[in-house]
Amino acid sequence: MKPIDVARTAARTAGDILQDYFQSGVQMRTKSASVDLVSDADVNAERAIASVIQAAFPDHSILGEEENSDSVEATDLWIVDPLDGTTNFAHGVPHFAVSIGYYVNGKAELGVVYNPMTADWYVAQAGQGAWHNERAIHVSDDRDLSTSLLGTGFFYDRGDMMRATLAAIDRLFQQQIHGIRRFGTASLDLAMVASGQLAGFFEYQLCPWDFAAGRLLIEEAGGRVSTCDGRIPPLDKTSFCATNGHIHEQVLQHVRLR
Length: 258
Ligand code: IPD
Ligand code: CA
Ligand code: CA
What we know:
Layout: H1 3-24, E1 28-30, E2 37-39, H2 40-56, E3 61-64, E4 76-84, H3 86-90, E5 97-104, E6 107-115, E7 120-125, E8 130-132, E9 135-136, E10 149-152, H4 160-174, E11 179-181, H5 186-194, E12 200-206, H6 208-220, E13 224-226, E14 238-243, H7 248-255
Parallel strand pairs: 3-4, 10-11, 10-12
Antiparallel strand pairs: 1-2, 4-5, 5-6, 6-7, 7-8, 8-9, 12-14, 13-14
């Protein structure tokens, strides 16, 4: 099987597991002393993804949010969020996704973001464009913040990072943006930038599994990604800014940490 077929099979298998748990209900628990939720759904979906990948490519490495912690230095690396949008999932909001990125020598080759509740597939392959289901997608054409709809996220912080996010939102509103949304699933937020629904997105902390697939979607759809201070995002915990490219510098002006 080709990596794209493996990624799709793994995402569909995980998506079926998530749908079952979503319908039947699952006990949520918090990760150590935080508001970050996890459940058997997250863990079992990641196990299913890992077994599909390992069956196809026994020598590849996996970095997943829950259980797989191979090094980002690995030559062939799959970066997996088995359930992105856990808080939505826990509260019965059907807006969550499986996110799978495949990296070779640190470079994104393939990204798949799948919402099992709506059967929306976002797929990108390096040099081959980005797709939403059967349709090629492109970032929006907005040239100015004053015509832009943006997205953001809050990570799980309730302190300085949350306050910095609120301050940046305030500054952006002063630029007469059309609005700013917090949908709660970073991989889908990035897919929405890639498909032109959002002109830009920023968050002060994402993990590699949140953006591994979405980053390639945006680049292949003609957009731009960076950290919130304009650097190339590392495959690590990082701030993240993603836009259609045209408004990137304008967004950075307001989200750069001060
Ligand atoms: C979270 C979601 C959320 C974002 C957080 C992520 P999780 O992922 O993507 O939108 O704001 O920073 O951690 O915990 O639901 O997999
Ligand atoms: Ca996530
Ligand atoms: Ca997750």
